[in-house]
Amino acid sequence: MSAIPFVFSVLILQLLFASQQCHRFLAAAADGRWQLLQKSIGVSAMHMQLLRNDRVVVFDRTDFGPSKLPLPNGKCRNDPSDTALKVDCTAHSVEYDVLTNTFRPLMVQTDVWCSSGAIMPNGNLVQTGGFNDGERRVRTFSPCSTCDWQETPNGLAAKRWYASNHILPDGRQIVVGGRRQFNYEFVPKTITANTFSLPFLSQTSERGVENNLYPFVFLNVDGNLFIFANNRAILLDYMKNKVVKTYPTIPGGDPRSYPSSGSAILLPLKNLKAAAIQAEVLVCGGAPKGSYVQAVRGKFIGALNTCARIKITDPNPQWVMETMPLARVMGDMILLPNGNVLVINGAGSGTAGWELGRNPVLNPVLYKPDNKIGTRFETQNPTTVPRLYHSTAALLRDGRVLVGGSNPHAFYNLTGVLFPTELSLEAFSPAYLDTKFNNIRPTITAPKSMSGIKYGTKLTVRVVITGKVAKNQVSVTMVAPAFNTHSFSMNQRLLVLGNDKVVALGKATYDIDVTTPRSGNLAPSGFYLLFVVHQGIPSKGIWVKLQ
Predict the structure, then answer these.
(1) Which helix H or strand E contains 293, and what residues bound it?
(2) CA-CA distance, 293 to 351, in Å (whole number)?
(3) Could you tell me where in the chain the CATH 2.60.40.10 domains are found?
(4) 264 closest CA partner among 255, 252, 272, 253
(5) Strand 320-323 to 306-311 pairing
(6) CATH class of the 33-433 domain in this structure
(7) pTM for the full model?
(8) CA 363, 399, 531, 478 torsion: positive or negative?
(9) 535: helix, coil or strand?
(10) 387 and which of 85, 298, 340, 391 could share a cystine (Cβ 3.0–4.6 Å)?
(11) Are strands 391-395 and 401-405 parallel, antiparallel or unpaired?
């Protein structure tokens, strides 16, 4: 998106430098493999969501003209409000089938540009907002082989463009912010006030640049919401509409939110049976203050090479700074089944916005949060495909990471430009998928996929491991499938269930006893990918429904 207005006469161009020494990295030998899955799916993947049937819903926007994928059976979208085509017979959304490596066109009725969403407890994708005639729409996609988008007009109380969503313990979604929306609301709408004021969003908005769109939103273990925008964060009791904690500004003061787009994750939640569970947030990359205005003028400032990590549950939380091997803006951060973090996609200079990024960062970086500081980063093998503005990534059930998108242009420009519109899909396979680990890789045989599990109860997971088993290095993890767009994976969450007991049954078969999360504050109800990890090597996941 390049429609960000800016007023030069009121901008104070300045760079704030970190007052705190950063911890340096030790880079290891490159790992990981890349695979081209589809040269073109006809649509650039601006938004991406994995569903419980191992299909991924991808969508772009409608207001740039035709895509490269026709709608089936002569279908056309008739939209008199569309700014590009009133009658459009091409698709702007795709369902990609992971298991068969095939795809089919889907039809959105209104503009989904720069929108948000999450998977509801019943497994449906509920997506909110967009641009123009789509800005107050709520759309639903159900996981089935013939399903298509269903839309609800005026499903939102306010116009939502560049907002962030999160699933709540009661099963609703909260929708936070968006352009010129300094408030939040719930989906489905409640009978109480439709929107709730959030002054923090106006306080973090820089005039003419914003730098606080797509705020990073995470459900804390106490049920409150951690909300990060620009360079700082609050803890919000959304039920009482009350800020219960204000976090310090990240050292250096540089913006990390759109368009100075860094990325952020809630690190894996552990020790889930403890009375007090610790939660940490990691924010990586972004662009120095003033970068957007400079990029508009044709000067592309180097991206930030720092990460900031904070224990959000501490009574006196402080940011701890670390240095990445590669500076990165517009990157994505993906939680892997073994608890490591993959930092992928993005640029080495510039910002988000049309034509405003340069120097593609082709190498992903692995971050190991449990390593000692200074030894956490490992540079991975590079792709050959630049993934800049409007690129996406999502964890798949087999442990690969699906990567798509990149369109830094107002239209589909496939030739004659510095970074063409990218219609391909790739998969990145972390080193844990190497065949040399097959003898220690678990295979889950029970429970069956789609099994229901209850809160705070014993769960037995049966696996086969053909090699020697280190019982103290066996762990069960649960991962919530995330909605990814604009360098943020909404609702991304990993819970480490560990193991209460590992019992050898003979013939390379083992039962692993674990205790499920005790409440919806730790893990909102819904579908999760469940993995068994042995010596850092994960099994293929199975789908379970926590209820």
Answers:
(1) helix 291-296
(2) 9
(3) 437-546
(4) 255
(5) antiparallel
(6) mainly beta
(7) 0.94
(8) positive
(9) coil
(10) 391
(11) antiparallel
**Residue 126: C-alpha distances to residues 47, 93, 141, 243, 255 (Å):** 13, 15, 7, 27, 29
Q: Which amino acid belongs to residue 194?
A: N
Distances from the Cα of 230 to the Cα of 27, 130, 135, 259, 261, angstroms: 29, 21, 23, 10, 9
Distance CA 178, CA 215 (A): 8
- What pLDDT score does 191 carry? 63
Q: What's the N-to-C CA distance of the chain in angstroms?
A: 39
How do strand 102-106 and strand 77-78 relate by DSSP bridges? unpaired
| Angstrom distance (rounded) from CA 98 to CA 485 | 19
Amino acid letter for position 418: L
- CA-to-CA distance for 6 and 353, rounded, in angstroms? 13
Output the DSSP codes for 89-148. -B-SEEEEETTTTEEEEE--SS--TT-EEEE-TTS-EEEE--SGGGTT-EEEE--STT--
Work out the percent of the chain whose per-residue pLDDT is above 70. Answer: 94
Tokens at 379, concatenated: 């540079």
The number of C-alpha atoms within 13 Å of 20 and in the hemisphere containing its C-beta is 16
Cβ atoms of residues 346 and 501 within 8 Å: no
Query: Taking the domain 437-546, which CATH number applies?
Result: 2.60.40.10
Contacts of 328 (CB under 8 A, 6+ apart): 284, 285, 303, 304, 305, 343, 346, 347, 348, 361, 365
Give 99's Cβ-side CA count (13 Å radius): 8
> Token pair for residue 117?
């969403």
The stretch 346-374 carries a mean pLDDT of: 98
Q: What pLDDT, in 10s, does the model give residues 116-165?
A: 999 999 999 999 999 999 999 999 999 999 999 999 999 999 999 999 99
Q: Where in the chain is the domain with CATH 2.130.10.80?
A: 33-433
Strands of the sheet with 138-141, listed across from one edge: 116-119, 125-128, 138-141, 150-152
Query: Mean pLDDT across the chain, nearest whole number?
Result: 94
Residue-wise pLDDT tens digits, 156-191: 999 999 999 999 999 999 999 999 999 999 999 876
Please provide residue 307's backbone torsions phi and psi, each rounded to the nearest 5 degrees. Answer: -120, 150
